[in-house]
Write a structure and sequence with these properties.
It is a single chain. The chain is of the alpha/beta class and 413 residues long. The protein has a single domain, classed as 3-Layer(aba) Sandwich (Rossmann fold). The chain is 39% helix and 13% strand. The chain has 15 helices and eleven strands. The strands form two sheets. Strands 1, 2, 3, 4, 5, 6, 7, 10 and 11 form a nine-stranded mixed β-sheet that branches. Helix 1 packs across helix 9. The protein is globular. The protein binds 2-acetamido-2-deoxy-beta-D-glucopyranose. 2-acetamido-2-deoxy-beta-D-glucopyranose binds next to loops.
Length: 413
């Protein structure tokens, strides 16, 4: 199926409708049993890993400097590699609205988490604050209406979550450095960390950016453009909706996914469209049978400020800190506009893998970032015209198109 611009508009409207409906109905619909669904539907990250007989460790209550309690999932070794001392550590970090599920939900043959474990790496999967496994704080309640729990963007994920998780992993494994692989917001937050807390550059062997996102003024995603349109002059609106959870009823969305997106369901194309809306249009690399599996754990939660912060970057054309409005900026930053992140401080070696049909990481924006980073070691544009933002996680041909390059990079550092 091909998508013209009116189809894209239709999908935009569909997604916004689904979001609205999910906000109105509080009760998840009863969705069991569905015998014809993929057997992995409904399995959590831990259940998925156990199902495929890989070792799984759950590390909970990793506390950030600002009191968030995070959970990490570890696959210490694979079925083809076995346990050993001092395995090289790979830390993988998911994107916006995702979680550690990204690295396992395509099963052992195609998921990065399993593949890396089988190649002999010690795999640690992070979960950012506000996502399914990291909805905890020493004092703030995520479920309270307008809770201060949700007062964060990817700035805080980079400034607090990543350092807390990296320190935890290095101290637990008694190692000095690790490999970092991030997708989308998992790259944004890395750049934030290394520019705001440069000491962390020394803890990175190499950082591999999949679909890197920092500069955003050329991105095409209609959902983000929609949010961006509300930013700027309507400063008070930003203030108003700034501190809240985005897509509060996640369980309900998961149920919708199971019913409407399974094989044979007439709405499967719409479900595919919703996924394309976030990632870019391409009907070739997404295996539709896997949509209900994906929707079991995704979307995994986010704060509206994460989206608004991206929206601000779209509008400003800069990669800079959260814009609180003139007066708050003066108080917080001592300047009228928010300061830009200092890319010169990102001295860890960075590799980038990006693609042409990526609605969030436009090639122009990626190339601008690559020029400005002081220690770029590798840049690879995927030679498949329609490869999109989410294909980096779920593409049918992900191994030849992406992961083989990732494995080569890991061997070199
Ligand atoms: C899509 O997923 C199903 C279920 O895992 C699998 O049987 C099928 O081979 C996949 N199709 C492709 C093209 O990879």
């Amino acid at each position: 199926m091909r998508y013209d611009s009116s189809t894209k508009e239709m999908f935009t409207i569909t997604l916004l409708t689904i979001i609205s409906i999910s906000c109105v109905f509080a009760q998840p619909i009863n969705s069991e049993p569905f015998a014809d669904l993929h057997p992995d539907v409904g399995l959590s990250v831990i259940e998925l890993i156990q199902k495929y007989k890989y070792p799984i460790e759950r590390h909970r209550n990793i506390e950030t400097d600002d009191g968030y309690l995070l959970e990490m999932h570890r696959i210490p070794y694979g079925l083809k590699s076995g346990p050993a001392e001092n395995k090289p550590v790979v830390f993988v970090m998911h994107g916006l609205l995702s979680s550690s599920a990204d690295w396992v939900n395509m099963g052992p043959e195609k998921s990065l988490g399993f593949l890396l474990a089988d190649l002999g790496y010690d795999v640690w999967m992070g979960n950012a604050r506000g996502t399914t496994y990291s909805r905890n704080h020493i004092s703030l309640d995520p479920d309270k209406y307008k809770s201060d729990f949700w007062d964060f963007s990817w700035n805080e994920i980079g400034e607090y979550d990543l350092p807390a998780m990296i320190d935890y992993v290095l101290s637990y494994t008694k190692q000095e450095k690790l490999f970092y692989i991030g997708h989308s917001q998992g790259t944004t937050s890395f750049y934030v960390m290394c520019s705001e807390k440069p000491a962390y550059n020394n803890k990175i062997r190499v950082m591999i950016s999949l679909a890197p996102v920092a500069y955003m003024d050329h991105m095409e995603n209609p959902l983000f453009r929609f949010v961006a349109a509300f930013d700027g002059p309507l400063e008070f609106l930003t203030q108003l909706i700034g501190i809240a959870e985005f897509l509060p009823d996640i369980e309900f969305l998961g149920s919708i996914g199971k019913v409407f997106c399974k094989d044979g369901a007439i709405f499967q194309e719409v479900c595919a469209g919703v996924i394309f809306l976030i990632g870019g249009f391409d009907s070739e690399q997404l295996n539709r049978t896997m949509i209900p599996v994906i929707m079991t754990n995704t979307p995994a939660g986010a704060a509206t400020k994460q989206l608004l912060h991206y929206a601000q970057d779209i509008n400003s054309g800069e990669f800079r800190k959260y814009d609180y409005g003139l007066i708050q900026n003066l108080i917080k930053y001592g300047s009228v506009s928010p300061p830009s992140y200092n890319l010169n401080k990102i001295t860890a070696p960075v590799a980038m893998i990006y693609s042409k049909n990526d609605w969030l990481a436009a090639t122009v924006d990626v190339e601008r970032l690559a020029i400005e980073l002081p220690n770029m070691v590798y840049k690879y544009l995927i030679p498949f015209e329609k490869f999109n933002h989410l294909d980096f996680l779920w593409a049918v041909d992900i191994i030849p198109l992406v992961y083989n390059y990732v494995f080569d990079l890991l061997k070199q550092y």
